[in-house]
Amino acid sequence: MSAFDDLMKFTRETEALGAIMGRLNWDQETMMPRGAAEQRGEEFAALETVLHARKTDVRIGGWLEQIDVKAMDEVSRAQLRHIRRSYERNTKVPARLAAELAKVTSVAQGIWAEARARDDFAHFAPTFKEVVRLRREEAAALKEGTDYDLWDALHQDYEPGSTGAQLDAMFGALRPRLVALRDKIMGADQPKGLSGTYDEDKQMALTEGLAAAFGYDFAYGRIDKAVHPFSSGSGLDVRITTRTNPEDPLNSIYSTIHETGHACYEQNISRDYLLTPLGEGVSMGVHESQSRIYENQLGRSRAFTEYLYGQMRETFGEIGVNSAEDFYAAVNRLTPGYIRTESDEVQYNLHVLLRFDLERQIISGSLDIDDLPEAWDSRFEADFGVKVDKVSNGCLQDVHWPVGLFGYFPTYSLGNVYAGCLHKALRAEVSDLDAQLAKGDTSAATGWLKNNLQQFGGLREPRDTIVHACGFEPSEAPLLDYLEEKFAGIYGF
User: Fold this and answer.
1) Is 342 a catalytic residue?
2) Low-confidence residues in the chain, pLDDT < 50
3) CATH number (domain holding residue 482)
4) What crossing angle do the helices spanning 95-118 and 121-142 adopt, rounded to 10°?
5) Nearest to 158 by CA among 313, 316, 286, 302
6) For a designed S-S bond to 154, which of 17, 392, 407, 412 qualifies (C-beta 3.0 to 4.6 A apart)?
7) Which residue out of 15, 29, 138, 259 is catalytically annotated?
8) Which domain holds residue 41?
């Protein structure tokens, strides 16, 4: 066998072990007994030790040296790019630190959940300080030999090639128009919302049908309940979760459509890339572009909500609004709220920008952990005009920081920007899109996304993936133009 063949065989085995670890994460969120958290932490640490040893195996370096990259085809060069990046990253991080991070963040998740339920930040603060300490140590190792700061070094795990400075510029252009649009909407008459109580079993049945309508293949996936909806897995085993609320069926519906976007990206990647570095989404920003365009530009469109209104009436009967147009307005109405995952399209990015700024301060050390609740509450009131009532609605609402995912949050807004670009390109190529969506037929839209983006997995770098799909360089302008036109139509200004 050639050095490339040896390297790919070894890499496939590592990818398979990583998939097993992903399944343990899924189990922890959905079915694991609460009392198993400490043992699960040990399991994660043991498996992470094995994975880290494989990812830093000296044979990888030897194989990479032997391979003539210039003689490789495009796919093989892309595989090598990912493998080399992973090898260089992991050889910077001591095995002891990798195992400790896996253990501590696993245990931290359970302590965070307890603290959130008790609205007691002090209960979580000591553990959180340990998570931050370890991630800072990891960041210091990763930034060696680069021009990155600590936060940038962590951010590369989620959006390779992106930096805090670049995001600052993009988010700086987003914020003024978003705030102006939000203020204009909040000064207008608000549409009526849904009313009534919605059977949770019927919600699950409806959401399963919607996932299928958006192309989710249940032969290779399943839907379960979790506190925080998420998608897990790749290739032939891609699972999603949702949550139900008898007072708010839209939460379940749009959480499911959102996670279906993630899942369909993974399911639609070429099978030729299965259990290789190309066999999963290329970055979290690109991944989020799929979930957000499914959820918002498609799922919350006037056309699709016309179809969904009929499904809602058929499933639940009276829902408190009496026309498809009123339902469209109810689905898209703006309301003040604390929770990022329940936020509307206009305010969502303001939630993310808040987190982006605070986590950079946390990692740099300019914001002390004990001062985080006060810093959060002050920034939230300044951005949203509302005082935070409790920490479960504030800095304890998200699981990302407790499990050490620093550098992750801005990919949500980057995904929204990418989705705006993809939607513009999609509309230019599918002229009768609204007529199809009004019938509940998403196949032209999801097919376009599969053919132009999803099937390629990690073949191209994140930004190049969007350029290839859209035919133009990404910017925030298409997203802002879309939001201003859409909400001006709903609110009549």
Assistant:
1) no
2) none
3) 1.10.1370.30
4) 150
5) 286
6) 407
7) 259
8) 3-145
